[in-house]
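go over this record:
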Amino acid sequence: MATEYLRYDKMVENALRGVVREALCQAAERGLPGSHHFYLTFRTNDPGVQIPDYLRGQYPSEMTIVLQYQFYGLEVEDDKFGVTLSFNNAHERLIIPFAAITTFADPSVTFALQFQPLSSQEGPTSMEEIEEEVTEEAERQAAKAGGAKQADDGKMGQVVALDSFRKK
């Protein structure tokens, strides 16, 4: 039987994505103070990424956007954000799931986070899925402990094959 472990690495990744979410929420509500600006690198081919086809053609695997002076309509949801940026004097709407982000940086304060893309990892990808996995693991461990206790108390029955009692 394989030993199962709590996936703290995934929990930490998800918690740090919450930092990105909160920074974007504050920027959406109040704008970017002082010299703050964000560099966000994301995987363009991840599920849920919505960008114009010509941008996907230019950036088939990864793209970096800058939120500094000219960004519009920044909207942040639990699992993604949307923003309108200007590309060659044309405004384009981008929708980017947090799971697609590989790097977040605010150079004005020398802060950066680097992520493993959630969509390419096995296992849970949201905080709810992580909590569900942790709860299920705790229940499995409790059931194992309860079964072992019953066996130790001698209260569990023993299965005997009836063939051993039959005359041949």
